[in-house]
Amino acid sequence: MKINLSNIKKAKKLLDKSECVAIPTETVYGLAGNAYSDQACKKIYKLKKRPKNNPLIVHYENIKKLKKDCNFNKNFQKIYKKFCPGPITFILDLKKESKISKIVTNKKNSVAVRFPKHAVARNLLKRLKYPLAAPSANLSSKLSAVSSKDVLEDFGNKIKYILEGGKSSIGVESTIIDLRNKPKILRLGGLQISNIKKILNKKIYLKNYPSKISAPGQLKLHYSPGIPIRLNVKKVKDNEAYLLIKKNKKVKKNYFFLSKNGDLKEAAKNLYSMLRMIKKNKYRSIAVKKIPNKGMGAVINDRLIRASKFK
Ligand code: TXA
Ligand code: MG
């Protein structure tokens, strides 16, 4: 995508005044504000209707800028060197002298940080004197946005500006890893755990992984298109939308294919926009055919399991 500098300058101008701007990233769009400004961060929570105790991710251009705010260890450096910028978020210790707003961290001494790869986001970050707090640009508990159109659909003119960046190339949120003690995955996402394992060469713990949660009530609704979802369905009802990983021989009006040939990366990229489309086509519920639980398939299943908590 060609970079439009005047758009980026317009976004900067608003951000400098502690306004919120939606920005593209390679995972999903973010609702961004100056992470050093209480005023900007308060606006983010209000716009998203996000509970105040759910902290925000802070986006940096590079490790040099991060150094002012966070402490980090060898494990961080290894992953950073290999995969950043990219779809991975780190939980790190805050430095005492950090300028990050207490509203971002909910007064904790840890913070989530990420280095987005999207060229528009990077160009913007390069011009700013502060990092950007940016949760996914959607209403709390709903589907993330993978295009400027999705953001507009959720927020209308409540957001001052949406910086155009085309469709997000990964289409699901970043992987979150807590590196303060033993490496622990807090959210499956764009960077696969097997890749991280290779680099760290040690056991990686999984926390909050849906298939390991015994009591279903433990999972809160998230990533929801706003209609019920049934998983691992072999026989779809006539009035349901049927979501399948790949095109099959039978093609009916209510069949929606996430990819042509079962490519799981392609399927992840299409997941949220397809769920939005099904909802727009006025289906009352969605049935999903079993999706292989490997690679990006595990991420798709993670999101669908959480979305299926909608009753
Ligand atoms: O791909 C992404 O990560 C996107 C793009 C815009 O960067 N952002 C995103 O942000 O998904 P959000 O806010 O929707 O999800 C961030 C998650 C939240 O579930 C939050 O609870 C968690 O990160 N988080 C933030 N700070 C944390 C901390 N200090 N410790 C543990 N979890 C934290
Ligand atoms: Mg989110």
Task: Looking at this protein, list some descriptive labels.
311 residues, alpha/beta, DHBP synthase, Rossmann fold, 4-stranded parallel beta sheet, 10 helices, 18% strand, binds threonylcarbamoyladenylate, binds magnesium ion
Topology:
Elements: H1 5-16, E1 21-23, E2 30-34, H2 38-48, E3 57-59, H3 63-66, E4 70-71, H4 74-83, E5 88-94, H5 102-105, E6 110-114, H6 119-127, E7 132-133, H7 148-155, E8 161-162, E9 175-178, E10 184-187, H8 193-200, E11 205-206, E12 229-230, E13 241-246, E14 255-259, H9 264-280, E15 286-288, H10 296-307
Helix pairs in contact: 1-6, 9-10
The protein binds threonylcarbamoyladenylate and magnesium ion (MG).
Q: What is the percent of helical residues?
A: 25-40%
Which CATH class of the largest domain applies here?
Alpha Beta
Chemical compounds bound to the protein: threonylcarbamoyladenylate, magnesium ion
Terminal CA distance: 40 Å
| Secondary structural class | alpha/beta
Q: Would you give the CATH topology of the largest domain?
A: DHBP synthase
What CATH architecture label of the largest domain applies?
Alpha-Beta Complex
The whole-angstrom Rg is 19 Å
Q: What share of residues are in beta strands?
A: 15-25%
DSSP strand count: 15
Number of domains: 2
Low-confidence parts: 212-217
Question: What best-fitting shape do the alpha-carbon axes yield?
Answer: globular
Q: What order do the helices and strands follow?
A: HEEHEHEHEHEHEHEEEHEEEEHEH
Q: Mind telling me the CATH superfamily name of the largest domain?
A: DHBP synthase
Number of helices: 10
- Profile the largest sheet: 11 strands, mixed
Mean pLDDT: 94
